[in-house]
Design goal:
Length: about 230
């Protein structure tokens, strides 16, 4: 059978969610927002979502403290801070190239991420990892980030395959919801969230290095994974 795989980026191929959080924290500290209020907000609004959506919700929550700075400026400062701190760390998931090599032999693959293209270029270009992906959907490609289905709908269209032939690899509840709302089945990896918070996925594994071709083929061959129908008809 024809197989398509759509990979998330942050938290799946690279472990950098903590760096995005730290970058925004570093930027916001200068605005005198109490840390005990800021840290829960970062967790609620930012993990598994585009920086643009995260910054938008943070600015709404702390509108008084952030009244004199635009969303665009906050996003610019956050992106610059992220690039600075990420340059000092190794963020690839160990074994990621081997995993992508394995699955490229059995599937047509695409990347679907809320990250900006310049961010993923910084990590994918040096190792020539773009060679594994037929299509790439980035944060600039969509108007609405995850959990909205737009990103995975675009990913599905780019692969040119029916939903029944595609599996998504995700790491966050927002990403799982996005995949399901786009009519796609999902395997989650517990690299960012604990497995119990990923139970909406059709399968949950500890890391992407635990992922085997049979996990994908078995899921596509089964009747399980039709939970997305709840999203389509609700």
């Amino acid at each position: 059978m024809d197989i398509g795989i759509l990979w998330d980026y942050n938290g799946v191929l690279v472990i950098d969610e903590h760096l995005h959080r730290q970058a925004l924290l570093n930027v916001l500290e200068k605005f005198d927002i109490p840390k005990d209020e800021l840290l829960p907000a970062l967790t609620e609004y930012c993990v598994g979502r585009r920086d643009a959506d995260c910054v938008s919700d943070i600015r709404k929550t702390f509108r008084e403290q952030l009244a004199n700075v635009s969303q665009e400026e906050l996003l610019r400062q956050t992106c610059n801070e992220f690039e600075t701190i990420a340059a000092e760390e190794e963020i690839y998931v160990p074994g990621v190239e081997r995993v992508l090599e394995t699955f490229s032999k059995i599937a047509t693959m695409g990347l679907v991420t809320g990250a900006l293209k310049k961010e993923i270029d910084r990590t994918l270009v040096p190792r020539n990892l773009y060679r594994f992906f037929q299509s790439v959907v980035t944060g600039e490609s969509v108007k609405r980030g995850k959990p909205d289905p737009e990103a995975y709908e675009k990913g599905r269209e780019a692969l040119g395959m029916p939903a029944r032939s595609i599996v998504v690899i995700e790491d966050s509840p927002a990403g799982i919801e996005s995949a399901h709302r786009a009519g796609l089945r999902c395997i989650a990896v517990a690299q960012t969230f604990p497995s119990e918070e990923l139970s909406a996925a059709e399968d949950v594994l500890p890391t992407i290095t635990d992922l085997r071709p049979q996990h994908v083929t078995r899921l596509l061959a089964s009747s399980k994974g039709c939970g997305f129908l709840i999203w389509k008809t609700g």
